[in-house]
Amino acid sequence: MSQLTVTTKxxxxxxxxxxxxxxxxxxxxxxxxxxxxxxxxxxxxxxxEHRIEESDPTGAITDPDPASSPEAESADPNPQVPFSEPG
Length: 87
Hints:
2 helices; four-stranded mixed β-sheet
């Protein structure tokens, strides 16, 4: 018997755990950490593999804030822009 997977992924602003071969066991969560923990526990209890499917940003309000990335922390939030008089 092949090992079926539990996949944690972002879907319509929520995090869902989809159980391959058993859609009635799939569940949704408010945040990724809660979904991952539940999926790992379910996968271990039912001898299944767990994987996390990262999603590309969609621009929706539920996407992570790009300003909170490590690269953004060193950027000047108020860069100086040269001012020139209209000519």
